[in-house]
Design brief:
six-stranded parallel sheet, TIM Barrel, alpha/beta, 219 residues, 6 helices
Length: 219
């Protein structure tokens, strides 16, 4: 039985459409959030391919992510590998603390902003109490990682060979994809993604899993 795990970054408004799809098909997922970037109401974050990307307001986040796992994406999404150690420690520890207080669940996963990390950053992520940290480097066989603080996913969810990777991953038991919901910019992309989720949910040889559960029985 292959375990399928997924995570999504940045806490944007299109996550609400995404979570509706995931709930409809019984799919599990982890959402990597920046606690310091969410205000009471929605805020404009940036423009992606001509479309405004807005972060969710705090007042709607509990409902948006109800039933899903929350992970830390740092407090404010800087490049951690280019910052002084104490500033990095604050980004990691305060980001985790705020998310745990807000959502009332343990926050055990971490995703490096921009995929940027170093040995020092990895040590600080572990020190803060995380059990894994995700990069953005794709690998064919993601689990178990050599170092849980540099957990490489299989691929981005828009990888053109995702279906092929999915079938190949059945030989080693885990496939891990990631992305941002704002990257689905057309109805056709949303429909294609929902079909992917539907197909995985219907596959008797696969099951949706939680990222953190992969690490629960490891030393």
């Amino acid at each position: 039985m292959m375990t399928v795990v997924q995570c999504w970054d940045d806490g944007v408004t299109t996550d609400m459409r995404l979570t509706d799809i995931l709930r409809r098909h019984g799919a599990k997922a982890t959402f990597n959030l920046n606690a310091g970037l969410h205000e009471k109401n929605r805020t404009l974050s940036f423009v992606y391919e001509g479309t405004e990307v807005r972060r969710l307001g705090r007042d709607e986040m509990r409902e948006a992510y109800d039933g899903f796992t929350i992970a830390n994406h740092s407090l404010t999404h800087p490049r951690l590998d280019q910052m002084p150690v104490e500033a990095v420690r604050r980004e990691i520890m305060e980001g985790r603390s705020r998310l745990q207080q807000f959502f009332g669940q343990p926050v055990l996963g971490f995703a490096y902003p921009f995929g940027a990390y170093s040995e020092t950053v990895m040590d600080l992520v572990r020190e803060a109490g995380h059990v894994y940290a995700r990069t953005d480097r794709g690998v064919d066989d993601p689990f178990p990682p050599e170092n849980a603080m540099s957990f490489h996913p299989s691929c981005h969810f828009l990888a053109p060979d995702l279906r092929l990777r999915y079938e190949k991953a059945k030989a080693h038991g885990v496939i891990y994809f990631w992305g941002h919901s704002y990257e689905m910019t057309t109805e056709a992309m949303w429909e294609a993604f929902e079909e992917t989720v539907r197909r995985i949910s219907a596959d008797p040889g696969s099951r949706w899993g939680e990222l953190v559960d992969l690490f629960k029985h490891r030393d």
